[in-house]
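FIELD: query
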Amino acid sequence: MKKLIYIGTLLTLLAGTGCRKFIDVNNDPNRPTDVQEALILAPVELTIAHKLMAGRDGFAPILAQHYMQVVCLNQPVPNEGTYLLVNGSVNGDWNTVYVTCLNNLKNLNAKAEASGNYNYAGIAKVLSAFCLATASDWWGDVPYSDALQGGDNFTPTYNSQEVIYDSVQALLDRGIADISKNAGLTPGGDDNFYEGDMGQWKKLAYTLKARYYMHLTKAPGHTATAQADLALQALENGMTSNDDDLKYKYPGGSGTENQWYWVFDPVSTLILSSSIVDTLKTRNDPRLEKMIAPAQNTGLYTGRAIGTIDVGNLQNYSVPSDFYRAPGSSNYVFNYSEALFLKAEATLIKSGYTAAQPFYKAGVESHMTKLGLDLTGDGPRNYMAARGTLTAGMALQRIIEEKFIANFLSFENWNDWRRTGFPVISRVPNAVATVSGIPRRLLYPQIEITSNPQSQQGAKMDERVWWDAQ
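FIELD: result
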């Protein structure tokens, strides 16, 4: 517990020193203005796992699960699952991205470059790209080039999402270049993702490049073929096995639990929806019992129907299995299965479904293997016989559907749905009338609307971001 308290204090300290000037002639030894790279990296990684991916003290990652009909609240409607949202609800997510993550990563990068510790600088740039892209995928246009400058500029202008995506790719390229220098200190135990394995960091950077290239397959001024070419080139240097997964390994003791544990347990009213549970049951997916926990009262795999008016008994519904939800389980930020599905989709665009087939199959099997399934068993073999072969008419749909399962609890599934329309979902019952269709973006936070008014902030939840073209 002491470690987590210290981490929170450190992040607050660093955020403060990067955002405003202080006129103070005294030096307080209890409030240092300079810290080692290791003391910046560790808490930023923790925040990414806690708040950007699992929704601990944040809203956006859980909203994405609502919109993709993975989770459901055992509460009366209207609620988040029926698209109820106010601007102030995402204030914390904005602060997480800008104050805690991007600001501290900027400090980390500057210190590492000045010290010649280019491994740390490379990591800072790669994680900055991830955080910046996440913000843009949630809100569209966001501040960047005029932001994080310190001083007295509290009203940075917003960059277009097209400019943001160019910046993301540039950050990844510069991060790869820094890592390739192999200069200065190498992280160790302070790197909770890869424990200082810079080869894995470089593979992650290339795989992230592929992800963000594929986001633009329908973006104005871009073509699916060109983006697929770029993605395939990046993947040549990307992840190669499940060992390359970007995951945060939680100790699981008091105060160090996987945050999905707190999202669903022990008194949360958030459970799994009937949509995700019934999908696995209908397909006879052998991953069902590995991914989903049976309801405590019945022993059955049961999700709650989103939009249901009556409140049920929490113990009658399923939550994620211990693989995803146990206090000591890992939180997957980016996994190798996604890399294979990216390769399958890009290959489909370039060369057709037959060429995409082996990468699609490998993506499904990599996820099954991660869950501990024996691929030679009846369950996996029967499943692959039923769903393992692509055809011209359903190849893209099947690729994205299986990617959706392999990326369980990842907000990337919302991005995939917006750009491809898969998996096919419908507007939920009893949805709020102010949102037509299914939400395609988040509202801008109230703190930004109040302190830094911009024309983009009037965007509605059913409006498309730039890359989400029809």
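FIELD: remark
Confidence is low (pLDDT under 50) at residues 1-32.
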